[in-house]
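Ligand: flavin mononucleotide. Inputs:
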Amino acid sequence: MIQTDLREFLAAVDAAGQLKTVSGAHWDKEIGAVTEVLYRQKVDQAPALLFDEIPGYPQGMRCLYGMLGSPARLALALGMEAKVGDDRMSMLNSVRRTMATHKPISPRLVTDAAVLENVIEGDDVDMFKFPVPIHHEADGGRYIGTACGVITRDPDSGRVNMGTYRVQAIGPNKATSYISNGKQGLIQRDKYLSAGKPCPMIIVIGIDPASFLAARYTLPDSVCELDWAGALTGKPLDVLHGELTGLPFPAGSEIVMEGEVSPNETTEEGPFGEWHGYYAGGTRPEPVITIKRIYHRSDPILTCAASQKPPHSHLFERCFLRSAALWDSLDNASVPDVRGIWVHQGGSGRTFVVVSIKQRYFGHATQAGLIASQINPTGYCGRYVVVVDDDIDPSDIQDVLWAMGTRSDPKTDITLLDKCWSSRIDPMVQSQDALYNTRCVINACIPYERINDFPPVAQTSRELAKEVRKKFPSVFE
Ligand SMILES: Cc1cc2nc3c(=O)[nH]c(=O)nc-3n(C[C@H](O)[C@H](O)[C@H](O)COP(=O)(O)O)c2cc1C
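Predicted complex:
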């Protein structure tokens, strides 16, 4: 079952041997460092880490990292058996099959939920009542929102958006957030601010797995993330309405902050250890968010995500979700016979993308590569796209390098595209007035004109491999 309650999900994660509680680590850099060191050591296999007894805070106020950061945990969050996570391509296919049959469903409004156990408002609002971490050594402050959901409403269409955008606590009731150019949350927010009006906002700090998956999934503008969470679970997501903003928020949340973004007050935001592994965004002015009310469960859990140089605690699921979303986008763009996709972790979940196709016609590989380089979710801040044949596993970097080294001609099979969609946090962007970058599309497929007479691959056939495994089982133990 896909969980819309973080605690029920954590119980399942614990039962699967995928949860570790750590006591006594400090919110000031220590929690982030413990997480990073472990995830670097146990790539894709580290447990979720629940930090408790954080110095200066009562026992029970906890920080969770790596909620979905292993194939087994992501499988659990998606309602699959944990062991399914062993095979990434079948997991991708299975999720896409589910999503093809499920349609977005409007949320169900409820009036009571555990998140209403504690309501803090007015002068009592103090984000530092929670153990808000400094996630990386050179961060500019304490970031309360990392694995979070930021909810806004489009003032023109009324569409509600929920995106995961980082939120820095800059005072007891003051925060700020960095939202990249082109993101829906920014477009909605700036419609209010450019009209000189405050933008109502809700920030979900302890977020349930289904809502977190929705908040970070790149959806078409027309689809609300809360509806998409319903599609994921197959039933409406329970939501409450914030009394001050009228905005909906997931009822299974741990901590929810309600407030508004100022049209005329800014503060310095950053630096923050970014998804690509650098503090590249530096410090910049961003609008101030005033938090007017906080709702929270007793003994709340802050869901956290510290990105850094790969690998890190939310990179596996990032790569998986972007791979699934890119596959959908290519299908929707009528690129036929896509057989696999992998957005690689070494490419920080954006900069190295592999698309595998069953070639059907001249130009098919170029078409797939160029579209993948521009379309969501890889259109923003991408760098390299490699297109391979369907005998190559796109998630296996050895296979991909072999294809590049044997099926592509650097002189003719590399296409460069200028002035593509980038961001001020791209470490290769030099001018804040020109947020472009370049894309490289590598066609590492067998040239289509040679598809029937390319040299045969020197690899033991499946049949013979099966036979020898059966005959000499001890060799393969
Ligand atoms: C842990 C995590 C942190 C993220 N932080 C940011 C951020 O600070 N700013 C941003 O613009 N996008 C961030 N993203 C990416 C967006 O959440 C993602 O692109 C999402 O699809 C945006 O939603 P939208 O299409 O509704 O704008 C983050 C994603 C994750 C998973």
